[in-house]
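Tutorial sheet, problem 5. The four components below are modelled jointly, 410 residues in total.
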Amino acid sequence: MEETKIVTDGRHLRSLQTRLKLLEAAKEVFREEGFHKATISQIIKRAKTGYGTAYVHFTGKDDLLIVLMEDVMTAFYSIAEQPFTPASRAEAEQLILQQTTAFLRMAESERKMLRVFGEAIGVSVSAQQKWAEIRERFINRIAQDIAYSQQHGLARTGLMPELVARGWFYSHEMYLWEIVRSDHQAPLDEIAKTLAAIYTGGLYS
Amino acid sequence: MEETKIVTDGRHLRSLQTRLKLLEAAKEVFREEGFHKATISQIIKRAKTGYGTAYVHFTGKDDLLIVLMEDVMTAFYSIAEQPFTPASRAEAEQLILQQTTAFLRMAESERKMLRVFGEAIGVSVSAQQKWAEIRERFINRIAQDIAYSQQHGLARTGLMPELVARGWFYSHEMYLWEIVRSDHQAPLDEIAKTLAAIYTGGLYS
DNA sequence: CAGAAAAGTTGACATAGTGTCAATATTTAG
DNA sequence: CTAAATATTGACACTATGTCAACTTTTCTG
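Model answer (structure tokens):
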């Protein structure tokens, strides 16, 4: 049974301070340099700690980044967990457009850290796992929404909700990275409109 | 004006031999170790050349891999360049399912090298660029196909072909990486069916 | 065909970063 | 005040990269 105890212990307090200094420094260095170019030496220098200290508090660069990602993750989760109980097809379409838009806007508002994270996903196994967590949570939730629509006679049956949800998330995820890198040509709303339209109505209907 | 000259020159011949030995060795090492774990030392050892030699022929590990990707790329291009001139909506749907299936099967048949390439994309800028080339070529071609369908009254208008094509490719690309990593749960044909169904008919039609 | 020039090959070296650990400093407890 | 517990530190060993001056092989030329 794990328990979060409030520690007034001065030693733990100092340790906690150091940990926070390191996290703060890491955030700055990551934003300025990106994941690959950022080094432990840069981080400890800015945090004003010794080299080894970083390895006492974190297992390495990945670990440092993953802790920093928690904030961004909660924002993601709040989008995924939006209630979805439409009574009509029109309402369903509206909700989906809303969710799509919120998802893409996130890319814009959290651009800096997501850029670093996107870079890390390619390199670090633990960053990859963390992202997979976010992704699976999203996909599960969307799959639930699809099942709901199918059960209420709003959406066509005969397609597996989990597979549709995965396809949905994948196209959104890639557009997210595009926006994070500022590679996108079209305005954000146009992208959201297109994604939602294809997902709900398809190209040939 | 560039020209491919046939060289009978013994020096160039030796050089070419070395280059090929390096490429062959690199292919083997990459497949066995993956991109990150593979080292130049391993490669030159297997190619039986000196360390510096690798850097005479290639600018680094990325460059070596990119040359090896050419084969895989041509296979991809042949799928993208399949003719698409359907006369009816049914024919269009059939062609799309075919293309989707071919794309996903590629992931299976070229799994080994694609796995390495997928790893490299996260690390190496040049691998990233090479993949972007493949992607853009695909997207352009699909956008053309969509425009064709729109112009012939088969597909709905009011959506930008380029944006739809991008969404299409993105969901396919991610499923491709999933298959490459053998992470996929559903059988390949089920995935293809779902992707094609959503793309053509949407979820709510 | 000798020997100079050109082209190709090589491994030792400088550089850069990681992660570890024995020594050191600080805090708490008796 | 001293010993034990905890936290911090930087020097060190290690791994890999990319460069370059020296060396080898091939071609050219008188």
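Marking note: Residues 9-11, 14, 39-41, 51-52, 55, 59-61 of chain B lie near DNA strand D (CB under 10 Å from a C1'). Full credit if you identified this.
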